[in-house]
Amino acid sequence: MSATLLWWGLAVLTVAGAAVVLLTREMMRMILGLGAFLLGIAGLYAWLGFGLLAVAELFVYVGGVLVLFLLAITAMGRDADARAIVRRFDLGAALISIGLAVVLVVALRGLLPAAVPVSGVTVESTADYLLGVWLPQFEIAGVVLLAGLAAALAIVQGGDDE
Amino acid sequence: MSPLLWGGLFGLLSGTAIALAALFGVWWERKVSGRMQMRFGPQQAGPAGLLQTLADTIKLVLKEDVTPAAADARIFRMAPLLVFAPVALSLLVVPLVTGWAPLDSGVGVLLFLAVPSVSVLGVLLGGWSSANTYGTLGGLRGAAQMVSYEIPRTLSVLALVVVAGTMRPSALMGAWRLWWLPLFAVAFVVYLISSIAELNRGPFDLPEADSELVAGYFVDYTGIRWAIFMMAEYGGMLACSLFGAAMFLGGTNGLPGLLGALVLLVKAVAIVTVIIWVKWSFPRFRQDQLMRLAWKVLTPIALVQLLVAGAVAVVWLR
Question: Quick check: B6 pLDDT over 80?
């Protein structure tokens, strides 16, 4: 019972964090939302029994990526932060996102395994998963991230040089 | 016991342990620094001044909790807890008794090294939210310092993991042998220096440098919220000393029950005393010196130590 409650608590934290990132207009609160989201994901990994992934999430994303974001925003100063407000919340985009989420959940529901803790997961078995069974997915995720990074650079540079 | 109840109970115990560590730590620091300066330290309140910190705590609790008008109030109030909570979590994985830790996870060592990175968020947010230049500068300095020193600290502990072949804290403590002392002496020094820097204590206390930034990232904090920052510092000192004693110095030395715990505690207090001694002996580093030490001295040394540990593990142990 309490394990289920814990699961729901972590799930709500994750979704709420993601919602804050999307809905808030202040940079610092966005970062806090992202932090809640990442902590929630780490908690869900731990709940499922994948301790190594949970700690790696904490180490790399909360301690590394999030801190770098925060460092950049803090270095901008509070006045700059006040101006750095994202564009207004787009109702149409939100409706499309929610619709997409519903379609995905309905379509994939039968394919996804039930969320139950996996017993006997060790550091070795996690390494075997990541570098064995799940290696293609792991590598594809890396390529997608790299493409995202290249896209972000292109956007920041403003397209073709005139 | 259900996970939620267990978690709540441990949170309570961990918080109490940190509060007691702060009470004792502040008193011990005053005594040690007093002796170093040919003074007695506190001696009026209670035997040997033992109740002085308690009296200070009562004063802090009664003080007004001020939030500056320009501050981002919610983040300002939350930041001390973001610094405190990871310290409480890090105590979870320290093996206090032979073969047992409150959370004896297979990735416990990594968890201990990872949680201080969450404290960085509290330091940065505390400084930024107070809308104070000193605070913001202190937060930036603290974040840069803590992120940099995480690397040599992690590498120094990794050398032990390579030889022991486990990241389970109790198993690592159990695997300790006397010959580890000379083999990992350098790693221990790197761990100690990096830990002092991660704790933002002198001579690495640039984030709060009183002569430059008044008190840095907690310049605008008063009363109990200021005390939470202090408790986190002394709790962190206890955690890193207990962990250092358990991993590098043999911990309980295989002694059972309370006797082993006592041996571990004595070693941890010895490390705490060294940390205090260092703070009151050396002048504060400059920011560039601090960064140079992390990246150009400690990290290469820790990497060499890791290579040596790897060679020992491959050639000798397997």
Answer: no
